[in-house]
Amino acid sequence: MNEFEDLLNSVSQVEPGDVVTAEVLTVDANQANVAIAGTGVEGVLTLRELTNDREADINDLVKPGETLELLVLRQVVGKDTDTVTYLVSKKRLEARKAWDKLVGREEEVVTVKGTRAVKGGLSVEFEGLRGFIPASMLDTRFVRNTERFVGQEFEAKIKEVDPKENRFILSRREVVEEKAAAARAEVFGKLAVGDIVTGKVARITSFGAFIDLGGVDGLVHLTELSHERNVSPKSVVSVGDEIEVKVLDLNEEEGRVSLSLKATTPGPWDGVEQKLAAGDVIEGTVKRLTDFGAFVEVLPGIDGLVHISQISHKRVENPKDVLKVGQEVTVKVLDVNADAERVSLSIKALEERPVQEDDQKEKRQSRPRRQKRQEKRDFELPETQTGFSMADLFGDIEL
Predict the structure, then answer these.
(1) Where are the annotated segments for Disordered (predicted)?
(2) CATH code given to domain 17-92
(3) How confident is the model at residue 39 (pLDDT cuts 50, 70, 90)?
(4) Contacts of 31 by beta carbon, 8 Å cutoff, 6+ apart
(5) Superfamily name and number for 190-258
(6) Phi first, then psi: what are they for 284, rounded to 5°?
(7) CB atoms within 10 A of CB 237
């Protein structure tokens, strides 16, 4: 009878909500039986109250003889016996401690782990406590597929803590933005127009390539990728390539950096005087046709102009009437101006002048010149008619 009273007294010492120390007695399929220290009563610790991982093996988490700090949830009385046990939890005790740690820590950055993609965002864990990051607060751009964050550890800023409502909201986007701003300020502090820097190709678009300069992406516009015209960005660089580029322009307020790849490589006009000279006869390819002539590629990246007057000895109304893009032609170099990046070419200079044209010229030259019309002369009266007086002329007239 005395032993039973002692048991009842010890039981009365344990209340739901108490934090107790217990020793693991046995570990079965999905639960562990524990002895609550100083009470003489036992407790049951299920896998569900041990971890959030439903796939975990309880034998990997607790061992017989191990001492644990647990939270008493409620009393359980056996149906067929008078035994009294308690349902205890390790997970909820850790969550309570985590809540206590979180109160007043809004705007603080902590490390969390993505646990599950849920509707509208991502479920995360922080020291045993479950939190939530809305999809709009995961990155600087809206994230539709949050699965890629599951299993990852990353930093997030605490935005809201409400233990009563079990509400714990975080933002990864703000951390990313702040780090990007710091990196941007550091990069802009080091860069200057004209610098040659090394970067990695981050992404490629139809209008150019974005280069990661270590926190800031600079744009190499399509026109600055190569000395060649009308090239595809993918034919010049690939994502992941490390390249040297020249800084053309900086705009820190808008976070823009304009870069050039072709400015770091020799241009086709460098040393062109040693490659081309007036009088050279070379092969070329018609690249473009205009109303005033044809542009012929004579060296890689160098197009010369065959003016419409230099295409043929015959009259040409439109270059398209006699030439086609892609056509191979032989041309004569008339002039090379490296400073102005201009080469003048001629096709007709390599052709004989038509005989008919020569005959017509000779005929024009052999025609007698027309005599100039005689100029009007001022005739003077003969000397015999000079010396008349008014009286002589009008003497016979009666007044």
Answers:
(1) 353-399
(2) 2.40.50.140
(3) confident
(4) 44, 45, 46, 47, 58
(5) Nucleic acid-binding proteins (2.40.50.140)
(6) -150, 170
(7) 18
Strand partners, 117: 122
> Phi and psi at residue 86, in whole multiples of 5°?
-130, 140
Q: State which CATH number among 3.30.420.40, 1.10.10.60, 1.10.3720.10, 2.40.50.140 fits the domain covering 269-344.
A: 2.40.50.140
pLDDT digits (tens, 9 = 90+) for 127-152: 878 899 999 999 988 888 899 999 99
pTM for this one? 0.50
Please give the pLDDT value at position 242. 93
Q: What's the mean per-residue pLDDT of the chain? A: 84
> Which two three-digit tokens encode residue 51?
């971890």
In the chain, ranges of CATH 2.40.50.140 domains = 17-92, 102-174, 190-258, 269-344
Both tokens of 63, joined, read 């061992």
Which of 36, 32, 46 lies closest to 15 in space, CA to CA? 36
pLDDT for res 294: 94
Phi and psi, residue 260, nearest 5°: -140, 130
The residue with tokens 């007086």 is 389
What does the pLDDT read at residue 1?
Answer: 53
Q: Write down how long the chain is.
A: 399
pLDDT at 367 over 80: no
To 5 degrees, how large is the angle CA 188–CA 192–CA 193? 125
Pairing relationship of beta strands 342-346 and 302-307 according to DSSP bridges: parallel
Buried b (16+ CB within 10 A) or exposed e, 151-190: eeeeebbbbebeeeeeebbbbbbbbbeeeeeeebeebbee
Residues 230-268 pLDDT 10s: 788 998 999 999 999 999 999 888 888 999 998 888 877
| Torsion angle, alpha carbons of 330, 332, 337, 338, to 10 | 40
Output 164 or 210, whichever has higher pLDDT: 210
Compute the Cα dihedral for 232, 236, 240, 245 and give only its sign.
Answer: negative
Could you tell me which of 131, 136, 130, 135 has the C-alpha nearest to residue 147?
135
Span 278-305, pLDDT tens digits: 999 999 999 999 999 999 999 888 899 9
Give the count of beta carbons closer than 10 Å to the beta carbon of residue 289. Answer: 19
- CATH code for the structural domain at 102-174: 2.40.50.140
